[in-house]
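no rush on this but wanted to send it before i forget. theres a chain ive been looking at and ive put its sequence and its fold in C-alpha cell form underneath. please have a look and point out which stretches look like helix strand or loop to you. thanks a lot i owe you, the record is right below:
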Amino acid sequence: MDTLRLGEVEIAVTRKDVKHVHLSVHPPEGRVTLVAPARTRLDVLRAYAITRLSWIRKQQAAFNAQARESPRRHVTRESHYIWGRRYLLDVQYVDARPRVRQDHKCITLLVRPGSDEAKRARVMHAWHKAQLHAVLPELIQRWEKSLDVRVHAYYLQRMKTRWGSCSHTRGTIRLNTELAKKPIHLLEYVVVHEMAHLLAPTHDERFVALLDAHFPLWREARSELNALPL
C-alpha cells in the first residue's frame, strides 16, 4: 500500500483488479482512501487526487463539524444512549457482580464499591457488546439469505475511524461497538454494507448496485449515521 500526501491530506492507495479509480472519504474522522487499477502509476494517481482535493477537504470539513459527544465519565445523571434513545445513568455501588439494568427511562450501572471510572466504562462497554450480540446473529442470517453470502464470523471492537470493516478473503466482518448507541436500522445498514463487501470488495459500481438492489435507502441511512453525534 502506498501513501499520497497533498499538503495536510493523506491518502492511502491500494491497487487491485478493478477497472476504475475509486476515491472515498470515510467517517467519522475523514480518512481518505483511493483504490486504483493494479498497473496505475503513482504520479497519475497523484494528479487525479489533486483534481479532487477540494472535494476531499469539503467532505473532511463536514465530518469535523459533526457534533461530538462529550467524554463520558459514567456517573449518575449522565446521559447515555442505547439504540438511539437517550437515558439517564444511575450508578449504584453494591457488593455483587457488576452488571447493567435498563428500564423505560433509566440505565442502572451496578458496580462494586471503589470501582473507578475505567472499571465503570468497561462494564458499560461489555453491556453494549451484549446488546449487539443479542441482535446480530439473526440480522446477519437474514441478510445472508438475501445477499446469498456466508459470514464465517463477526467481531466487535471500538473503532476510531470507521463503523465497520470486512475481510472478504476470510468471510468476516468487524463492527464498531458504538453502533449499539445508534438506531438499530443504522446498525442494519452497516451490516449490509460490510456484507456487500464480501461480494464486491471495493466501492465500485457492483457494490453500489448491490446496495441499490437490496437496501434502497442506504444513502439516507449513511447520511443519518454520519449526522449523528460521534
Q: What stands out?
A: The helical segments are 42-51, 53-64, 117-147, 184-196, 205-214, 218-227.
